[in-house]
Amino acid sequence: MKIEKNIEDFDALGEDHIGTSSNTPMRQDAFKLSIEEKIDIIKDDVRHIMETLGLDLTDDSLNGTPNRVAKMFVKELFGGLDPKKKPSASTFENKYKYGEMLVEKNITVYSTCEHHLLPIVGKAHIAYISSGRVIGLSKMNRIVDYYAKRPQVQERLTIQVVKELQEALKTQDVACIIDAKHLCVNSRGIRDVESSTVTSEFGGKFKEEATRREFLDYIKLDTKF
Ligand SMILES: Nc1nc2c(ncn2[C@@H]2O[C@H](COP(=O)(O)OP(=O)(O)OP(=O)(O)O)[C@@H](O)[C@H]2O)c(=O)[nH]1
Ligand SMILES: [Zn+2]
User: Fold this and answer.
1) Where is Zn(2+) bound in this sequence (predicted)?
2) Is the pTM of this model over 0.90?
């Protein structure tokens, strides 16, 4: 396949440039195939995996699985690789002059670990201090969901959420903490059911102890899954 860089598509993905640590590593021909073409190719790949495992795909319970999995990958679990799905982060003027921290906590995170393609399930907590703009509350949940719907490592997801909000809100004063369970740790390998992973990214004023403490006090990090 011809490799061509399509800068517009990458910009729409929210990636300023390809290959830096906080960007999702993408092939340069990532946008050459349509959604339908991707589903068609992945369907055959899933069928191949299942047949290699020895499964009889003429069984009426297994017959639809390759197509089902392909659709789920492209449209659901990894839908955040499609720049068209990027939520519009509508912001408004801070007319009410609200000057304190705003915290959106317990945002549900469903993502997929890029090392094992197993679920990451947890909660994200976001805080920002307005520099003149405010953002619709649901947009923060949508931004988390968009970046979560990719093969991910939790560190990158945390940073991507903060960068997106910093850009939308035109301020560095944004923070995100994610507390999540990785099924690759909980259900296989070391099989530690209890452990979870906490990641954080603190921008601007959140680098200061008092501001960071206020955020942590609001969320109390008592997340239950
Ligand atoms: N830093 C980081 N590591 C992750 C994340 N999700 C999964 N991992 C780790 O990625 C590592 C991959 O290590 P490998 O040794 O190549 O994989 P593996 O042989 O399956 O390792 P085990 O899980 O220890 O059985 C594992 O230690 C996972 O726990 C994440 O979001 N961040
Ligand atoms: Zn994993």
Assistant:
1) 113, 116, 184
2) yes
